[in-house]
Amino acid sequence: MGQGISFVALNALLMQRYMYEHGWKREDFANFAVTAHANGANNPNAMFQSRITAEAYARAPMIATPVGLLDASPVCDGAAAVVLAPAEYARALSPAPVKIRASAVGMAPLAVHDRKDPLALEASAISAQKAYAFAGIKPNDVDFFELHDAFTIMAALSLEASGFAERGKGVQLALDGEITLQGRVPIATMGGLKARGHPVGATGVYQVVESVLQLRGLAGANQIPNARLGMTQNIGGSGATIITHVLEGMA
Asked: Which residues face 247 on adjacent strands?
């Protein structure tokens, strides 16, 4: 950042390196944006409530090559809130309380060039592994993942660092449709940062609120059938500080 580089440019560098190391093309990232917009279309609180196509993604103007307009989430206004209470009081406050099974933080150097491996998203791996251990679960126990898709490359790196895909294979999940509501790892179930919008300070709480809707069976057309465990992950500083929560619906 001392050289004037922006968050968009940092993500462009990461995406360029990822494509170079793993042989992907820019158009291979399209389904991250397409999926988010498809889910946002059914969310009345989403900033963008219209679907997009892979063709529209390919035609989108470049912001910082290879990051195009449809690779990036929009910064927007927004507010979200949660009510926290001891478990013994939860049922008095709500007929369908949600339990925090785990909450963990991971940290890495703020400067991307100071990290051991810029594409490893180490803080994500640390926070996710801590959360899994605290909750006593594994990645395949998670019914949906509200990740921090500020950019399509961050979605791919988060899936890999959190154990849902091998290194370099996060994009394959999107290509195979595994990140859709019907897929193996549904992400951005209410539109994510990409379609719902990215109100920055409110984003992490928004993810929790949307997860609660899923776990209470109140997600409408975007409902994941029989959702019991949801995971949220919020990123700061292009991967410097990452917080992961595991939430569970209480029967």
From this structure: 100, 230
In the chain, the amino acid numbered 179 is: I
Stated as kind and residue range, the H or E segment containing 242 is: strand 241-249
Residue 107: both structure tokens together = 């940290």
The reported pTM is 0.95
DSSP structure string for 155-206: HHHHHHHTTSS-TT-HHHHHHTTTTSTTSSS-BSTT-HHHHT-B-GGGHHHH
Q: Would the CA dihedral through 66, 57, 198, 226 be positive or negative?
A: negative
Q: Where are the domains of the chain?
A: 7-249
CB 193 within 8 A of CB 226: no
Report how many helices (DSSP H) and strands (DSSP E) the chain contains, helices first.
9, 6
Contact 139, 162 (CB under 8 A): yes
First-residue to last-residue Cα distance in the chain: 47
Do 202 and 78 form a contact (C-beta atoms < 8 A)? yes
pLDDT in tens, 126-181: 999 999 999 999 999 999 999 999 999 999 999 999 999 999 999 999 999 999 99
CATH no. of 7-249: 3.40.47.10
**Residue 126: CB atoms within 10 Å:** 18
